[in-house]
Amino acid sequence: MSxxxxxxxxxxxxxxxxxxxxxxxxxxxxWFTGLSGSGKSTLSVALEKELHALGIHTYRLDGDNVxxxxxxxxxFSPEDRTENIRRIGEVANLMVDAGLLTLTAFIxxxxxxxxxxxxLLNENxxxxxxxxxxxxxxxxxxxxxxxxxxxxxxxxxxxxxxxPYEEPNHPEITVDTENQSLEESVQVIVxxxxxxxxxxxxx
Length: 203
Known about the structure:
Blueprint: H1 16-23, E1 28-33, H2 40-53, E2 58-62, H3 63-67, H4 78-97, E3 101-105, H5 111-120, E4 126-132, H6 135-141, H7 146-151, E5 173-176, H8 182-195
Parallel strand pairs: 1-3, 1-4, 2-3, 4-5
């Protein structure tokens, strides 16, 4: 991929810190990772609604939604998966600079790709949320019918079937959607954000 040349970063006269102070909460990326069907999108939608009700400025990036636009030219090869996550990391980094709590729901199967996004951000601005759910449970749910197609050979390089998923080694948060309700999972994350002063504990 060619790189742009003759470009210079143009500084803003409004800093990230000033945007954060205006919003009255920290900015960070809440990076949901897990198998297809684990509940990443459902959980991120419910969490965003809860945070909005608390007066928190958010934006949500979802894997399928992003592939309709920004990343519609990418497939599912290992190289395209890496580029998919790289682009999302850059977008999420801009949103953190804008002072937002940014929720991203992507399978993001490779640890290295997730670590590369973490490296873009300042310390404590990347919160890896492992949406833990067994392959068997995800395959039973199969909300989009993708596992059935993958088992039939209609979809190639499907994570968990014929492509790997690398679990996080040290996620900031783990939610077990196989054994926790949606409400319980949302509360686990909200509690973490309050206890670690991302949002006001009094909200």
